[in-house]
Fold these 3 entries.
Entry 1:
Amino acid sequence: MALEVGGKSFETDEEGYLANLNDWNPDLANAMAEVDGQHWMKIIGKL
């Protein structure tokens, strides 16, 4: 599955995790949180 953010496509694995960790950025993290219904803090491991 791919996630489009800011005109770029980011590949994810079958569980929705980012396939290439070097692609990580705050905008992408926010978009991923919106897609799976989770809060930003869960993505950065603060929950």
Entry 2:
Amino acid sequence: MLASLAVENDKPFLIDQSVDAEESTIAAFTTTPRNALAVPIPGQQSPRGAIECHRAADRPAFIPSDLDFTVVVAHQTGLALENLEHRERLERANRQLRHRLASQTQLVGSSRPMQEVLDQIARVGPTASTVLILGESGTGKELVSQSIHELSQYRAGPYVAASCAAFSESLLESELFGHEPGAFTGADRLHIGQFERAHRGTIFLDEVGEMSLACQAKLLRVLEGHPFQRVGGQQSIRVDVRMIAATHRNLRELIRQERFREDLYHRLRVIEIRVPPLHQRGDDVLELTSLFLDHFCRQIGRGPLRPSQEAVHAIRQYHWPGNVRELKNAIERAVVFARGDEMTPADLGLPGQEPTDARPSGLVSLRDAERRHIHYVMQQVGGNKTQACQILNIGRGTLYKKLADAEDADDSAPADS
């Protein structure tokens, strides 16, 4: 009863009827205790509730200082409840953002490592902070970058992606910053660089660890807010872009080798997001399998395809060195070659599962096994030798030699009769 009065009137009450109950304005309420106090708990619009305290007849009566203390407690309680509600709203919004990310991209997965990535994207996206994304090739670093862009204040602007590994040192500077006509042999017209194209949007620099030191110096100046010039030009150009960079390399090791600038590293690493490899994501591989099966079945217009128990086992056991990209390619192959409505391990074409007649027992030499694995990796990365070197963990010279050896072996093999 007294708590209701405090809430309705939005003010505290102190009742002491022990001396003269007939003089009390609350005496008409027969259920009112002889000595009590009630204080409303403040809210944004109206009281959230009230704190009501009773004092036993054999105890000293409440005095005004007790009421003052309870007012302070009620105020702190109101703040705590408001903070709790604010946190619940943020968590609810965070869950909605993660659901939106999962529904709009291939960034799906219920594993803890992937949920942490989605949580980081939801937190970082609305800011303008520079982001460095780390992870093995094929893990989905560009998908992370695109998701950050879609949540950012730059989402209405362009999203421009550039691979630092796809160009030579001289061409990369021209690709990023543009060039004027006559800047070098073959430069017969004006070329607008990727930074200018990304103005008021997001630029994603993939494989930033492959950038030369000279190009790193120019990139650092842009990150520090300085203007830049096109190759062969004099005009100073300023751009407003959000920078997101990615690499599979250990940049700290490159710094130690004096192949990457430490000051640029710290400029890029305002926010760092690590994308886990597929083999660390548990049953996310099955969620992705289901996603890709549905996608490719729709794409080629065939009926639903489900994985057999043997295929599920093979997918779980395989290490997936090419990560999500390799899984996607394997599922696309399976959808094309699978017969009926069930996908088998053979349909996936994973290394070690291809039938072979090289030996009556199905065993092959180490040289043949290596040659087949290199051939498979090259297929999975679409012939991209840089990515193949990363997956195989070998240098480009070694890869070229092994490819040449494999070609010689194919040329010397007997023709089919």
Entry 3:
Amino acid sequence: MERNMAEENKKNLVFIEEVTTNVDEVQNRVLHEILTRNANVEYLQCLNLNGRTEREAFKKVVLVITYEDIQSDINRIANGDRSPILCSQPIFSLISPTNVVPLLVSRNPMSTCWDIYY
């Protein structure tokens, strides 16, 4: 048991060292994976990213956005539209406990899709 825990701790430390030492490479790889999985979503198609997955292409066409910029897309999802609007995978949860701006929360840290919390 102790040996397994020690091995697991060692693996975790190696992972942390890798992602903190090679930040630029890790970010580039993660962005590439996200863009590859979501190349055909409506949002990216409307921005004419055209399936490109390199960082520079992404930075040229995708600007910082606000909730209001994608509110109509979120409303479509909230109203049951299951087409790939913002994400190629289905949105997991749509919860509205209060009248505040929705909060997008990933249920799985490795997921490229988000839960939407109202």
